[in-house]
């Protein structure tokens, strides 16, 4: 599983930079409904990218495809130059929009679980973050609130030295007061030169951390631009532009 | 990777499975005493029923939990973790397979003890002994038969669990839309019918018995070794082995290529 990490490092040393995420003509259908329609995009390494759109716009579908939990699509998808599979999973840290760890687990079990399966997982960092968030490592997931479960999962995801972090609605279930803590955790813990793809529709709180944004509507990319360019050329914040683009 | 997966599968399941096994042990230990206190006359008969019917119930519950764990760990919310582990489909499947075998063997040990107790109860009662004499005769076989039956039991369990795992995976394919459960059921039944055909077609010995021996004589001489000869068992073993390999390969491939979490 190390080979893909080594391969990427070798490519970087050689000066060649492969996009971290590249999709060409990506289309995904659920029965008669098209969730993603001809999505073509390229996300370079070392960027924090916001994936935005209203409910049902295809954000989670795109994320699932990139992380390898959803197959059966048309078009091509590459993560660090490879088709999503067992190899890419070793360099992608995924935070799903639900509790994916067993409810029977204690927090310390979750740390041990990640330690066992991901060689890039930093156990000490995880325990420090858990302590900073004042979460009891001896408690089971079934005893935590939804927001606390999300925080623990975020800690797990961000304690990996991954090349791509895919975070699906990381602040969806946490209260406004805790959002800053969550965002700071993302900003301070992700590895330099890594790419972060973060989906959300709570834009005001997070737009400060993005380098670029992707707007999805009904499965199509309607905007993919640098945040600075949005502000300079359109004289709008991402939040205002989002409201304008997705006005009902 | 595989050993770690088995370790975490065991950690996830040991509470539930141990509880079932302990409940079975307690039931088998407590019930004869209760029955004896209530009705000493019929206690032996009811105890014998407990020790022979209880294992069937235990087996069904264990299989149900094994399949439930496979379903939730791969296709429930936990699947979002399982399918993002850097592991191939065959490792995921083998881990679940070994877990299932471990718990089924644990249950088999208890079932063996239970059946042994049941036999001892029958032997201690002359009326029950004479009643069950044809059953003893039916199972009186040589070592070769018992060895092939043991192998058949083990491989049959592997084959059954793999067929069920494969059927669950088939039922999750997005192409079925709302008919997934029905398609999973059809897949399971199809595998079972298909793998039973070679053994059913090779039934010369049984036909010989039914054609040449009168009905009363047949009842007296009927023995498992006549119904299922060693050759018959070996054919079944070969078929089970072939089906297990094919189903394992197909299920692992589906896990790799057609994952579709909702």
Secondary structure blueprint with pairings:
The complex is a heterodimer of chains A (248) and B (262).
Chain A: H1 2-13, E1 21-30, E2 33-43, E3 48-52, H2 59-67, E4 74-79, H3 86-89, E5 92-95, H4 107-117, H5 123-132, H6 146-158, E6 164-168, H7 176-189, E7 195-200, H8 203-206, E8 212-217, E9 220-226, H9 227-234, H10 238-245
Parallel strand pairs in A: 3-7, 3-8, 5-6, 6-7
Antiparallel strand pairs in A: 1-2, 1-4, 8-9
Chain B: H1 2-38, H2 43-75, H3 79-82, H4 89-123, H5 126-139, H6 143-171, H7 180-201, H8 204-212, H9 215-221, H10 224-227, H11 230-257
Largest interface: A-B, 29 and 26 residues
Q: What general outline of chain B do the C-alpha atoms trace?
A: globular
Number of separate structural domains of chain A: 1
Lateral arrangement of strands in the main beta sheet of chain A: 5-6-7-3-8-9
How would you describe the overall organization of this protein?
The complex is a heterodimer of chains A (248) and B (262). Chain A has 10 helices and 9 strands. Chain A is of the alpha/beta class and 248 residues long. Chain A has a single domain, classed as Rossmann fold, CATH 3.40.50. In chain A, helix 6 runs parallel beside helix 7. The two termini of chain B are 26 Å apart. Chain B is globular and about 60 Å long. Chain B is an all-alpha fold and 262 residues long. Chain B folds into 2 domains: 132 residues, no CATH class; 123 residues, no CATH class. The longest helix of chain B is centred in the first third of the chain and has 37 residues. Helices cover 85% and strands 0% of the residues of chain B. Chains A and B meet through helix 3 and helix 4 of A and helix 1 and helix 3 of B.
């Amino acid at each position: 599983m190390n080979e893909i990490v080594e391969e990427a490092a070798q490519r970087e040393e050689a000066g060649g930079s492969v996009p971290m995420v590249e999709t060409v003509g990506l289309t995904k259908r659920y029965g008669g409904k098209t969730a993603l329609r001809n999505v073509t995009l390229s996300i370079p390494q070392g960027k924090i990218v916001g994936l935005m759109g209203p409910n049902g716009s295809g954000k989670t579908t795109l994320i699932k495809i990139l992380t390898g939990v959803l197959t059966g699509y048309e078009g091509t998808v590459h993560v660090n130059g490879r088709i999503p599979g067992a190899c890419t999973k070793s360099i992608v840290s995924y935070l799903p929009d639900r509790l994916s760890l067993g409810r029977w687990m204690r927090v310390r079990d979750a740390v041990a679980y990640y330690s066992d399966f991901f060689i890039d997982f930093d156990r000490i960092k995880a325990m420090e973050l858990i302590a900073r968030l004042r979460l009891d490592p001896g408690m089971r997931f079934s005893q935590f609130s939804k927001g606390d479960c999300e925080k623990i999962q975020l800690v797990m995801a961000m304690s990996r030295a991954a090349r791509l972090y895919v975070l699906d609605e990381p602040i969806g279930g946490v209260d406004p007061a805790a959002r800053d803590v969550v965002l700071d955790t993302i900003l301070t813990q992700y590895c330099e030169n890594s790419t972060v793809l973060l989906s959300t529709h709570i834009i005001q709180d997070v737009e400060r951390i993005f380098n670029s944004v992707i707007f999805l509507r009904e499965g199509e990319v309607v905007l993919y631009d640098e945040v600075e360019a949005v502000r300079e050329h359109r004289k709008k914040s991402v939040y205002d532009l989002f409201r304008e683009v997705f006005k009902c | 990777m595989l050993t770690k997966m088995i370790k975490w599968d065991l950690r996830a399941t040991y509470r539930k499975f141990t509880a079932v096994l302990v409940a079975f042990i307690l039931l088998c230990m407590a019930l004869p005493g209760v029955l004896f206190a209530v009705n000493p006359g019929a206690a032996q008969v009811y105890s014998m029923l407990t020790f022979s019917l209880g294992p069937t119930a235990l087996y069904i519950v264990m299989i149900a939990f094994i399949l439930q764990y496979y379903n939730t760990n791969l296709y429930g919310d936990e699947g979002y973790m399982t399918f993002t582990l850097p592991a191939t489909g065959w490792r995921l499947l083998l881990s679940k397979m070994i877990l299932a075998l471990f718990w089924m063997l644990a249950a088999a040990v208890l079932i063996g003890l239970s059946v042994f107790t049941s036999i001892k109860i029958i032997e201690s009662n002359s009326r029950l002994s004479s009643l069950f004499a044809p059953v003893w005769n039916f199972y009186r076989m040589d070592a070769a038969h018992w060895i092939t039956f043991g192998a058949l039991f083990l491989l049959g369990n592997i084959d059954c669990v793999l067929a069920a795992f494969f059927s669950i995976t088939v039922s999750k394919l997005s192409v079925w839309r709302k008919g997934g459960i029905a398609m999973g059921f059809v897949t399971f039944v199809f595998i079972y019918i298909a793998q039973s055909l070679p053994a059913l077609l090779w039934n010369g010995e049984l036909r010989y018995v039914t054609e040449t021996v009168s009905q009363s004589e047949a009842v007296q001489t009927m023995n498992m070794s006549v119904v299922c000869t060693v050759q018959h068992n070996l054919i079944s073993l070969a078929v089970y082995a072939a089906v297990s390999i094919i189903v394992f390969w197909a299920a692992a491939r589906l896990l790799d290529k057609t994952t579709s979490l909702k």
